[in-house]
Specification:
heterodimer, A: mainly alpha, 2 domains, about 0% strand, elongated, B: alpha+beta, Alpha-Beta Plaits, four-stranded antiparallel sheet, about 40% helix, about 25% strand
């Protein structure tokens, strides 16, 4: 049943395990985009994940450099971050509430 | 149910059965111990993770945190890699999580014939990645001296014209690099298709932020018989630097991520998903 090691010759003769040093973009491309897509019990919105991959494709390779430079705009960009879009909604709610209060005050004043 | 409360079964891959001693000590995501859940002659590589860390809400937030994603992606890949070194392996997509090992067994049972079929098809084969990109810098250094034009000649009567000429030259070099890379990509495709069992094309990796100097023209994965992997890699490498403007990069060997099952080959619940237990 057990297969013999498949790396026996030449330059490719290295155990699979060595590829832990693989380029992050290459790894993410495979673990997020490829592989058996089978529904787990925990439902992640695959659309979200796919969207995320697109963002990652733009960001991933540069993220370390970017962070070193203190650039983290994607964490606040509502199209790139669910957290930011929630913050945005909260902001909008707050502004609307304030506006209502202002209007109510204005209505009550005269 | 002998499912520990608050735990879930993170599933990395399905493989043809092998001696669990071969992966003794292997750790997966969240530094959890990896073990095998058997069904008939196949196994799933699984580890028990805290449900609270991997439920819908947690995943939705965490998938957007790049440090977390990188750690989980690398841990996932490391397990897939380790299992693939032991036996023919079908990697699962990141974050495939079940409510306990019974559910994993159930999925193995339901999809057994598909899994077995895919494992038979992949046995003794590996995936190699081949990327062809432009190398504009190599173009510039390879260009004849008259186009080297970095510094304007101090004697030049018209620095503006010099500038425009240099810009035009840069554009021409970039176009040349692209044409050369496209031609090399074509040669890669014809040459490697003869050695490979199957081919998949991935979307080119974005060069803008990748730090890669050139533009990715071809991003392909080849499924190849293990004993021909070296030959394929050598053939691909032989096409590197054939044209000064094109680079060929070989990655892998990978477990056959790109040649896993199509979605429709897998059992789905009534709503298109396997429902929770």
């Amino acid at each position: 049943m057990t297969e013999p090691s498949r790396w026996q010759t030449g330059r490719l003769a290295r155990p699979y395990g060595q590829s832990s040093s693989a380029n992050l973009a290459d790894v993410l491309e495979r673990v997020l985009d490829k592989g058996v897509v089978i529904a787990g019990d925990i439902k992640i919105n695959l659309l979200d994940v796919e969207l995320l991959t697109i963002k990652l494709r733009l960001l991933v390779a540069s993220v370390h450099t970017a962070k070193e430079l203190g650039i983290d705009w994607w964490e606040r960009d509502p199209t790139l971050s669910a957290r930011a879009s929630r913050d945005d909604l909260a902001d909008e709610n707050r502004r609307l509430r304030e506006r209502i209060l202002t209007l109510e005050d204005a209505g009550a004043a005269p | 149910m002998r499912r520990p409360a608050g735990r879930a079964s993170y599933t990395y891959a399905v493989a043809r059965g092998f001696d669990p001693a071969q992966i003794a000590g292997l750790r997966g995501v969240d530094d959890t111990k990896v073990y095998l859940v058997p069904y008939a002659d196949i196994v799933a590589a699984v580890s028990s993770v805290p449900l609270a860390e991997f439920d819908e809400a947690a995943l939705r937030v965490k998938l957007e945190r790049l440090e977390w994603l990188e750690a989980v992606a690398r841990a996932h890949h490391a397990v897939v890699d380790a299992v693939a070194a032991c036996s023919v392996t079908l990697p699962f997509r990141l974050a495939t999580v079940y409510h306990g090992d019974e559910r994993v067994t159930e999925v193995l049972r339901q999809a057994y014939r598909r899994f077995r079929g895919a494992l038979d098809r992949l046995a003794g084969r590996v995936e190699l990645g081949v990327k062809v990109s432009t190398d504009p810098e190599a173009m510039i250094s390879a260009a004849p001296a008259r186009t080297s034009g970095g510094v304007p000649s101090p004697a030049s009567p018209s620095p503006g014209k010099d500038y425009l000429r240099r810009r035009r030259e840069q554009h021409r070099q970039r176009d040349d690099a692209w044409r050369q890379a496209a031609a090399v990509a074509e040669r890669v495709e014809t040459t490697l298709a003869e050695l490979a069992v199957d081919t998949r094309h991935h979307r080119p990796q974005d060069p803008r932020l990748s730090g890669a100097r050139g533009e990715n023209v071809l991003n392909a994965a080849y499924l190849v018989d293990a004993e021909r992997a070296e030959e394929l890699a050598t053939a691909a490498k032989g096409l590197d630097r054939q044209a000064p403007g094109a680079r060929v990069e070989v990655t892998g060997p990978w477990a056959p991520y790109s040649f896993a099952l199509p979605d429709e080959a897998l059992p789905q619940g009534g709503d298109g998903r396997v429902g929770p237990a």
